[in-house]
Amino acid sequence: MGIKVGQPAPSFDCEALVGGKFENISLEGLRGKWVVLFFYPLDFTFVCPTEIMAFNEAVHEFEKLNAQVVASSTDSVFSHLAWSESHPGLKNLAIPVLGDTAHAVARAYGVLIEDKGIALRGTFVIDPEGTLQWVNVNALNVGRSVDEVLRVLEALHTGGLTPCGWQPGEATLNV
Questions:
Q1: Which DSSP string do the residues of the chain spell out, in sequence order?
Q2: Among 27, 67, 106, 148, which residue has the least CB neighbours within 10 Å?
Q3: Where in the sequence numbering do the catalytic residues fall?
């Protein structure tokens, strides 16, 4: 993975499924907000909808932290639409889902499995200025924790030093 925490996040400008319609989403268009960009392998699978539904259910918690959640896979926006219309838990998505059919976004973020044409379960937190602040990548078979992403985002919001096991509301370290 060529990208690093503390460096500018790779730019993207992609067609996305947003509220049942197609529109372009770009990192530049999200400046001024925190961005939680998460990749998942494929539509019409088993672990992926559990993660998308969990992020969707927590969207208001992310909004309170001035964060926009964006999902991405290498499937097309047409596949995203068909999946969201056929899966009961995905019918009312409040988060955009990028259609990265050219694999450019997954490749730029270092999560593309080239020989399979799918993305690992990567999660990236980008600050309002476009700097990458946190990265977590899971194997294909391991779902991520939305609670941990929220905890990390809240830790980043403190601007302080947060010790191991820190939870929102706890004091930061004084040095």
A1: ----TTSBPPP-EEEEEETTEEEEEETGGGTTSEEEEEE-S-SS-SHHHHHHHHHHHTHHHHHHTTEEEEEEESS-HHHHHHHHHH-GGGTT--S-EEE-TT-HHHHHTT-EETTTTEE-EEEEEE-TTSBEEEEEEE-TT----HHHHHHHHHHHHH-SB--TT--TTSPPB--
A2: 148
A3: 48
